Amino acid sequence: MNRRTLENAITTHITEVTSSLEMAEYAEVMRWLSEWAQEKAELAEHLPDFEEENE
C-alpha cells in the first residue's frame, strides 16, 4: 500500500467513525489524534531514513 492510499484509508475511516459524534466528542478525538501524531513525528525524527539508505 502506498502512502497516498494509506492516507486516504485513514481519512475515510476517521470520517466514518467520527460522523456520529457530538462536537465536543469530535474535538476531543481530534485533539487526541493530533497529540498522537505529534508524538509519532517526534519519535520518527530519531529513526534512520531508510529511503536514503536504499539509494
Describe the largest sheet. none
User: Could you give the distance between the termini?
Assistant: 20 Å
Summed over residues and divided by their number, the pLDDT gives a mean of 87
SS summary, helix count: 3
How do the strands and helices of this protein lay out in sequence?
Elements: H1 3-18, H2 23-44, H3 50-54
Record keyword descriptors for this entry.
single chain; 55 residues; mainly alpha; 3 helices
Describe the protein's architecture and organization.
The chain is mainly alpha-helical. Helices cover 78% and strands 0% of the residues. The radius of gyration is 15 Å and the shape is flat. The mean pLDDT is 87.
Briefly, what is this?
By secondary structure, the chain is mostly helical.
